[in-house]
Design a protein that fits this description.
- This protein has 132 residues and is of the alpha+beta class.
- It is globular.
- β3 and β4 form a beta hairpin.
- The protein is built from three helices and five strands; from the N terminus they run αβββββαα.
- It has a three-stranded antiparallel β-sheet with strand order 3-4-5, covered by helices on one side. Strands 1-2 form a two-stranded antiparallel ribbon.
- It has one domain.
- It comes from Photobacterium aphoticum.
- It holds the Pfam family Anth_synt_I_N.
- Keywords: Aminotransferase, Transferase.
- This is Para-aminobenzoate synthase aminase component.
- Its EC number is 2.6.1.85.
């Protein structure tokens, strides 16, 4: 099970050219939280994957010391816990552990950014947890 709303994993290999991901992303671009992460070095041997995401199972937005968690089913929570821990917990709750799939670098995960304003949160963490 990938998550409660998407119980199966389906992988399909697609033909690729340098602009293929832009074409595939176009219909997703208007969906909530749509993002595209493109491989940068076209001649590098690890340049095999562009990542397209939209309509996430959950979003986390932190302002100051408060994080608002919104789930795709409409549920919302507010937390004052460390946002890095929250990302890890939400992933654990929504994306159960799966066996690795050959030639696929990961299955599921989190996409986003942590602004420099989270520096205050980082300073409160034990030193070993600050290594991101």
């Amino acid at each position: 099970m990938i998550c409660k709303s998407h119980p199966e994993l389906f992988i399909e290999q697609l033909d690729y050219d340098k602009d293929a991901s832009l074409t595939w992303f176009e219909p997703l671009a208007g969906q909530p939280w749509a993002m595209i992460l493109r491989s940068a070095a076209s001649d590098h041997p690890d340049n095999r994957f562009d990542i397209l995401v939209a309509d996430p199972l959950a979003t986390l937005e932190t302002h100051g010391e408060t994080t608002r968690i919104k789930f795709s089913n409409g549920d919302e929570k507010i937390s004052t816990l460390d946002p890095f821990h929250l990302v890890e917990k939400i992933q654990h709750d929504l994306l159960p552990s799966l066996k690795p799939v050959n030639d696929v670098p990961f299955i599921g995960g989190a996409v986003g950014f942590f602004p420099t304003t989270l520096d205050a949160v980082l300073k409160k963490l034990p030193q070993q947890q600050r290594m991101i």
